[in-house]
Design goal:
about 140 residues, mainly alpha, elongated
Length: about 140
């Protein structure tokens, strides 16, 4: 349990970025590969429960890491980008038409970008805290 907490505290954005990127690749490449017949035995990957699983995992990981970091550095850009990604992704999942692929892909990419922004903000706020501490103590 301590190991899992350490992973989320120190590598949550990396985990979220990897998951969101995998989600975006799934949303964009899988329909093309299925249509070409290259993954003929993997029709189950195009089912909506897989998309809901991606959405729930993205909201869980990004919600935890980005919100926790926002409470420390108070810079809302990552939170705004993540929320826009969630909205687009959810609209794409709920709609079952041609716009689904584009909306879910863009949503996943935005969530991945939000993790990069959050990682940078957290890193820079941590560096500024280290730099603002006095070098010599009495």
């Amino acid at each position: 349990m301590k190991k899992i907490k350490h992973i989320f505290n120190n590598h949550g954005d990396l985990l979220g970025f990897a998951g969101s990127t995998l989600c975006a690749l799934h949303c964009s490449a899988l329909p093309l590969l299925l249509a070409m017949g290259m993954l003929s035995g993997f029709e189950w990957m195009e089912s909506h429960w897989v998309e809901y699983a991606f959405f729930i995992s993205a909201v869980s990981i990004a919600g935890y890491t980005i919100l926790r970091s926002y409470l420390q550095h108070r810079k809302p850009l990552a939170l705004i980008v993540a929320c826009a990604g969630f909205v687009l992704f959810l609209i794409g999942v709920v709609q079952h038409n041609h716009a689904e692929i584009g909306l879910t892909t863009v949503g996943g990419v935005l969530i991945a970008i939000a993790h990069i922004i959050n990682w940078r903000e957290q890193r820079f706020s941590h560096q500024s805290e280290v730099n603002s501490q006095p070098v010599f103590s009495k």
